[in-house]
Amino acid sequence: MTSTEEFASETKEPRTPEVSRWAAVSAVALGTFLLVTAEQLPIGLLTSVGSALSVSEGTAGLMVTVPSLVAAFAAPLVPMLVGGLDRRLLLLGLMTLMTLANLATSVAPNFALLVGSRVLVGIAIGGFWAIASGLAVRLVTPADVPKATAIIFGGVGAANVFGVPLGTLLGDFTGWRVAFASLSGLALVALVTLIVVLPALAASQAIRPKLLAEQFRNPGVRIGILATILIVFGHFAAYTFVSPALQKLSGIDERYVGPLLFGFGIAGMIGNFVAGSALSRRVHRSALVIAVSLALAMPLFLLLGQTRVGGAILLILWGLAYGGVSVALQTWMIKAAPQAVEAASSLWVAVFNLSIGLGALAGGVIVDTVTLRGVLWLGGACALLAALAIWSARRNEAVR
Question: For the Major facilitator superfamily (MFS) profile domain, which residue ranges apply (predicted)?
């Protein structure tokens, strides 16, 4: 038995009934769904929030930027600050924070207090995601880890496909305050569900700065972190401006952009579960296929996406490939650092969220100063570099 297998058998084998395990996995997926919905819901409500609180749409955009950046720092800091606290209690505390933060957003009398509530949302997102991303190894058998991880990250895709559009629709009809109040109510439901189904999760080890630093000595972790930075940075540099790309490069009417983005989200959910299934067999090969697919899909917009049909097809293929990124790279980190899953996962979540913000920022600079086409080349180039990094780890037994 290898050291990885020994660790799995000693610390990852759940002792709860199988139905309870999967109920816990589903409850954590509900949590990730609400967290991502809370993070991105302001995108569809910027105009109404800005008008109500007398700020520009650009300033209102801080509602999205602030929690993403806070989450990047909270991901490693929250597990480190709580030490050996039972992870069940930590997740319950973070979901409680999410419930109160969204309630505070819904009643904020001015924009300063609203942004303050979004800081709390960022803390909840970073801390919850850092723990949840590696939680599958604590809830199910080793053979079921990729499937459980796919379910947990399915909450991310579901938020993009259903949570944000439905929340925006509710805000349009009833007001943005009602939308955030409703999100707070759903977070309370998630909290109660977690209380009922989540088993005790004693901390396997306290997270310390030294332990976080030690992860960079692990070549598998280094490559996983590098691939995450490159793929997520490149994706958001390009995807942030996918709407103008579809309209200006593919000639697609603005009224069809929304349905196509919905299709992108559906394809992403499919990609998430397809990747989850493939990862149970070959982690390295699956991650490489995803990176290569992204390296092709984005630049091909410039060659084959010049028609409405071509642009629509490439968008769906792009969504299918990107949908597998989270589950593939998180599984990579679990395999690369089996005895420090939480530490490696917290670093991964941190760079993931940071790369989202920096990628969107870089894309904006390129679109404003160079050309819209430039972000598609950048996205493809970053994915290609990520593919080369992943390929270089082909002899690393831990991530094969």
Answer: 24-398
Q: Provide the strand spans (E) within 263-388.
A: none
In the block, residue with structure tokens 């490149």: 234
Domains of the chain: 3-197 (1.20.1250.20), 209-399 (1.20.1250.20)
CA nearest to 252, candidates 264, 262, 260, 263: 260
Type of residue numbered 385: L
Residues 217-241: tens digit of each pLDDT: 899 999 999 999 999 999 988 887 8
**Per-residue pLDDT at 15 exceeds 70:** no
Q: What is the 3-state secondary structure (H, E, C) of 30-62?
A: HHHHHHHHHHHHHHHCHHHHHHHHCCCHHHHCH
The full length of the chain comes to 400
Distances in whole angstroms, Cα of residue 64 to Cα of each of 53, 108, 182, 265, 398: 16, 16, 18, 19, 36
Distance CA 214, CA 56 (A): 44
Q: What is the CA radius of gyration of the chain?
A: 20
Between CA 55 and CA 58 the distance in angstroms is 8
Burial class (CB in 10 A: 0-12, 13-18, 19+), 83: exposed
Q: How far, CA to CA in Å, does 210 sit from each of 72, 75, 214, 215, 354?
A: 19, 16, 6, 9, 21
Written as six digits, the tokens of 20 are 């309870």
- Check if the beta carbon of residue 169 is closer than 8 Å to that of residue 299: no
Token digits of residue 382? 């970053």
What's the CA gap between 17 and 39, in Å, rounded? 33
| 21 close to 140: Cβ distance less than 8 angstroms | yes
Whole-angstrom CA distances from 238 to 1, 158, 220, 367 are: 44, 21, 27, 10
